[in-house]
């Protein structure tokens, strides 16, 4: 490697630092849970965790861990193969059938991550004659997946239904053969649910299909945790669902696409991240299977999650914090200015609360925030302690 190249890379890193965008990873010494042992400067501290996607608290669930351990004995540690060569176990098919049934679709196909599912879905299903119409706040993996496909791209401002209709009209005027509207089910930086009833109605009006990426919903939102289509009552009007096992459903890893049989069949033939990447590890497949079984029955955990959400929202709102409105367990606490978000995060850290600040370019300039996420793993005492810490830190930093 030449000095010139390394110099160039160092300059880039320095610029990231100067811009205040350098991300430093904090280390957890132990399992993901309501409290985590955070290792800092050689010593460990137990902190209340408000920044995991561990909505139902399944990431350290004893039954899921047991399923994963049992799977090692029965199915081994690794597959050492892509699915179509010799990497498909009965376990993988069972997981596909189970997630498909859970979401009310014919079939499903597994990927190493939802990032890969979104990376493979558009290129496989759409050609240059087609149109993909995408919400401007969609996840990075959708943006990249759309870039990889040859369909004509249309974009509408976040949740702007007039904008969506304009783009559908434009796609129609441009002579699109097939049109696919794409949205996140939950916009994870802001914590609100996509307007699926209007999206589906507009799609229907213009003969378009709908794809929902439900990563921040499957397992904890809607009846039995069936996600935003079930929550918003649109059900089968959503044609394709992409999602993850890396959040609510055990938080291990792995993505999936659920849809009509021919769609899944074609993805199995053509989706590149599926064809050219290793199978999910048996531990992960077995743990995810158990997670779906638990999530389906977990009305108690969903209620607990909702109670925590209400408690945290109400208390912080009353204390004078500015929160973004919404009904999901994602509760963004707005600071607007990035340095204030950093100071608040540091003050919360001192008070034993583990949070993450978000600023430009992850969110727009002037919209810096601390994004908090509730979990059913938290006790009421944890939530109350976190509220007290927020109020104290808010006063110490002059935010409230
Ligand atoms: C987390 C997330 C992904 C990525 O999921 P992985 O399985 O971790 O790759 C994709 N889309 C959305 C909306 C997400 O929130």
TrEMBL record:
Its EC number is 2.3.1.29. Keywords: Acyltransferase, Pyridoxal phosphate, Transferase. It is an enzyme of class 2 (transferase). The keyword DNA damage does not apply. The modification N6-(pyridoxal phosphate)lysine is found at residue 247. Its cofactor is pyridoxal 5'-phosphate. Pfam families: Aminotran_1_2 (PF00155). Gene3D superfamilies: Aspartate Aminotransferase, domain 1, Type I PLP-dependent aspartate aminotransferase-like (Major domain). Residues 46-389 form the Aminotransferase class I/classII large domain. Pyridoxal 5'-phosphate binds at residues 114-115, 188, 244-247, 277-278. It catalyses: glycine + acetyl-CoA = (2S)-2-amino-3-oxobutanoate + CoA. InterPro entries: 2am3keto_CoA_ligase, Aminotransferase_I/II_large, AON_synthase_class-II, PyrdxlP-dep_Trfase, PyrdxlP-dep_Trfase_major, PyrdxlP-dep_Trfase_small. Belongs to the class-II pyridoxal-phosphate-dependent aminotransferase family. Homodimer. PANTHER family: 2-AMINO-3-KETOBUTYRATE COENZYME A LIGASE, MITOCHONDRIAL (PTHR13693:SF102), CLASS II AMINOTRANSFERASE/8-AMINO-7-OXONONANOATE SYNTHASE (PTHR13693). This is 2-amino-3-ketobutyrate coenzyme A ligase. It comes from Devosia rhodophyticola.
